[in-house]
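Quick one:
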Amino acid sequence: MKFISILRGINVSGQKKIKMADLKALYESLGFCNVSTYIQSGNVLFEYNSECEQSDKAILKNQIEQAITKVYSFDVPVDVRTVDEFNAVLNNLPFDGIEVEKDGTQVLVTFLAGEPHQDKIDNIATYVKAPEKLVVDGSVVYLHCPNGYGKSKLSNVFIENKLLVSATTRNLKSVIKLCELAAS
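Output:
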């Protein structure tokens, strides 16, 4: 089965440095096959051949997190999703008229470690200021920041703090590229 994992907060501002070649080797040491990485932010595609059910993503997540902690002596949250789940994220994009070349870095997908409570979703909606848009769909937050993500209050840390769920964010271009790489 093919998976995509995304690591939170590595290689940002010189913090939690992990070379992608080393990360690839770490995944291979865990018995994962056809491991590849995409850009320096910790996007890893891999296969795991097992009779395990899809629900074992939590086991894979824990194995990866523990291995990173053991090798690097720091903690890194990891989100593991099947390729089908990643494709569903794209298929469920709630914004109309998005042009990937123009808007691909202004549309963000935040992957949540779990589904937030409705009262937290209602609360975060009060912080969305037009022309920004935010849609929570299960364990995914879709964010459109036409004026730029760097100018938005709705950062990954802000979303985590308001929803009380661990999260990591990727722009639409990265999500599309990961799906393309997984299909090849």
